[in-house]
Amino acid sequence: MRYHQAGKIPQKRHTIFKSEDDKFYYEQLFGTEGFHGVSALLYHIHRPTQIKKIGAAKDVSPKVAVEKNVAPRRFQGKNVSPENDFLDSRKILMFNNDLKMGLAKPLQSMDYFYKNGECDELFFVHEGEGILKTMLGNLTFSKGDYLIIPRGTVYQMELKSGNSVFLFLESHSPIYTPKRYRNEFGQLLEHSPFCERDIEAPEFVEPKDEKGDFLIKVKKENQITDFVYATHPFDVVGWDGFFYPYKFNIGNFEPITGRVHLPPPIHQNFEAHNFVICSFVARMYDYHPQAIPAPYNHSNIDSDEVLFYTEGNFMSRNHIDLMDFTLHPGGIVHGPHPGAMERSIGKKFTEECAVMVDPFRPLKLTEEAMNIEDKTYETSWLEE
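Above: the chain sequence. Below: its structure as tokens.
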């Protein structure tokens, strides 16, 4: 992240700041990891603490179907059912103590506000367009966008079409750009596959000076609780800092290529505690005269591997549909499907696009996942 400033802020932090009609603005420190992590300072028209009512909590714990998975799996995302409500549409397929991930097909925009009180959120837009409205400003999104939403962000999702599809991920640790792409000052290095120009901060919008009943659904400890506040949460007149939602389009990821096949870390886009997120994009294949573009067989001893297929044909797999997830558990060797290695030889370019998540602790599988599983996948490497 880099420093960003929007709206009106005082010259000095933690000092008196008033409106033109001599009313106080109210400062809020917004950040993670106590007072050590990245943060931003927000300035509200009203105190952001005015709770009118707290409702009953709704349990949304994922229902475990497979506690300890050792089998390769394919989950067919096209069979995930859409839901009218945005939160109801989020179907968790896989999770561990570090993250939850799944697919969402919401049909309607949110008529309430939402805040994840313990997890950063990542949305990858597989299909659809709309506006992510937050207390820090708006992000217009469309197909191929990553939306990174820090924990504690109050937001609404406004959808422009009824066929929206999102890969979503909740992280119990902050989601950052990889440290190896940055220098000691935090600037992205010349060999990074993207730069600061590719990262879009929220567009500032005029604050909402409104009183009434404002419903914010808050998620914490696998429960969603209704909080009713007395003032509109989007009453921020200005803010500055390093902690804010942002957008990054997968098309701005510049692939790293070589003479022979390079391992998956070259595709890394984000990192968090105990997992990484990679972007596979259209790219030139390896250019050694004897190169085999298809990946070699590998075991991933210390991590599971999840791929979400969003565009094109993935050259190492047979019979994969868009919106599919494949899961290859750590410790079990996997590699190209029969014929994929041979087909790749001599090819110069690929149009494939996929998101990969590599967790360093095993994933548990939910009932939602098992309802959309292709049962034939685990034996699909047998030669005829």
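The longest helix spans residues 340-344.
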